[in-house]
Each structure stands twice: as C-alpha cells, then as structure tokens.
C-alpha cells in the first residue's frame, strides 16, 4: 500500500471483506458470551473477554447511546492495531492480544488466509505521520441496522499534507436473543473461517 491507489486494488477488496468479517465475529462473540444465560462455568475466560469487548465498543461516551452514530473509542483502535500473530507464543500477552487469541484461537490467527494480524495496519489507522496515504475513521452505529458501510472519501488537510479519509461504520444492533437457537447461530459464525459473509441475516456486517 504505497499510494492512494491501494483502495482500488483487488487486494483491497479481499482485505476489506475479511476486516468486515473479523469485526462482525467480534460483535457476535460479545453477544454470545456477555450476560448470556447460555454460558457455562467452563466459559469463564470467554465471559471475561466478552465484557472487555463491551467496554471497547461502548466505553461510556455521552453520544454512544442507542440510535446514535458515535466515534469509536481509542481503546477499540488499540484492539484493531494489536498484532497477535507476532506474540502468539508469549505466555502472558498484553490485553488486546490476549482478547484476540481467546476469540479466534492460535491456529486461525497464524493462518494468513483467514485472519489479518493486525486487523488494520498503521496506514489504514492513520498512524503514519507525514504521509498522504488514505486512512479510515471508525464510527459505531446503534440505530438498529445490521449493515455497515464504507463512505465515499473526503479530502482532509493535516500538517500540510492532503489525504483521503474514509468513514468506516460498524453496525451494532440490539442482540436478537439468548436462547439455544440464537446461541447456535452466534457460535457457528464465530467459528466460521471460510465464508466472508454471514449466512444468517441476524448477524451485523460492514460491506
């Protein structure tokens, strides 16, 4: 990704779809294990991880309320830039790496075809100061829609550099339910490594 043309490449579209899938699976994991009566004592690590996800997606900002579109928290960006593949053999990885390993497992994280590590690179996150590469800005949509989107770019000027900024909207509707049927739907998507899109329309996705 050495120029603004990266967004128009075939690799961009494959990468964009896989990023959308991973975020969708993060939300679905949260639904499956946070305050869900279908969890068991053996799921304690996953329950704790789901609670952390909730704090990352909804850190208590005044505008992060149902029916609103709010900016993603800096902590969520830290999760997006975490690189678990580079720390896969550490006994006590840092918090964001541990969250991702707990959700996706070591085997999948090591598979470059089914997992991106980090989920977003430094260019996409706008962390490379002094360049004119395109980047994302993330927002959370709690209006109830299950479909997020990548907006058309806008040109912004920063430190005498012009760059393209895309708004990446992540949809988080209310959890449909916590019955065994719903939990089976959630679990099937969380563990799905092959499909880029969820087969069930209950699952939110940015496309």
How would you describe what is shown here?
The protein has 207 residues and is of the alpha/beta class. The chain has a domain at 4-65 and 73-123 and 177-206. It contains five helices and six strands, in the order ααβααββββαβ. Strands 1, 2, 3, 4, 5 and 6 form a six-stranded mixed β-sheet that branches. A hairpin with a 2-residue loop joins β4 (154-158) and β5 (161-171).
Task: Based on the model shown, name its key terms.
six-stranded mixed β-sheet; 5 helices; 207 residues; alpha/beta; globular; 6 strands
- Outline type: globular
What is the count of helical runs?
Answer: 5
Compute the CA-based radius of gyration. Answer: 17 Å
Pattern of helices and strands: HHEHHEEEEHE
Q: What structural category arises from helix and sheet content?
A: alpha/beta
Helix content: 25-40%
Q: Give the low-pLDDT segments.
A: 1-8
> Proportion of β residues?
15-25%
Mean pLDDT: 87
N-C termini distance: 21 Å
Give the beta-strand count.
6
Assembly state of the chains shown: single chain
Largest sheet: 6 strands, mixed
């Amino acid at each position: 990704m050495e120029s603004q043309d990266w967004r128009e490449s075939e690799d961009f579209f494959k990468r964009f779809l896989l990023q959308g899938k991973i975020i969708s699976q993060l939300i679905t994991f949260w639904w499956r294990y946070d305050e869900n009566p279908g969890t068991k004592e053996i799921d304690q690590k996953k329950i704790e991880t789901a609670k952390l996800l909730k704090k990352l997606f909804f850190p208590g900002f005044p505008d992060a309320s149902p029916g609103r579109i709010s900016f993603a928290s800096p902590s969520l960006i830290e999760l997006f830039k975490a690189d678990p593949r580079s720390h896969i053999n550490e006994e006590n990885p840092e918090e964001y790496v541990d969250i991702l390993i707990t959700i996706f497992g070591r085997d999948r994280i090591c598979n470059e075809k089914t997992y991106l590590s980090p989920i977003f690179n430094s260019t996409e996150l706008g962390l490379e100061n002094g360049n004119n590469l395109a980047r994302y800005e993330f927002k959370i949509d709690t209006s109830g829609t299950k479909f997020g989107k990548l907006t058309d770019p806008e040109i912004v000027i920063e430190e005498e550099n012009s760059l393209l900024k895309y708004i990446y909207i992540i949809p988080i509707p209310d959890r449909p339910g916590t019955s065994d049927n719903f939990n089976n739907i959630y679990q099937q998507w969380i563990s799905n490594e092959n499909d880029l899109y969820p087969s069930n329309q209950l699952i939110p996705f940015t496309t």
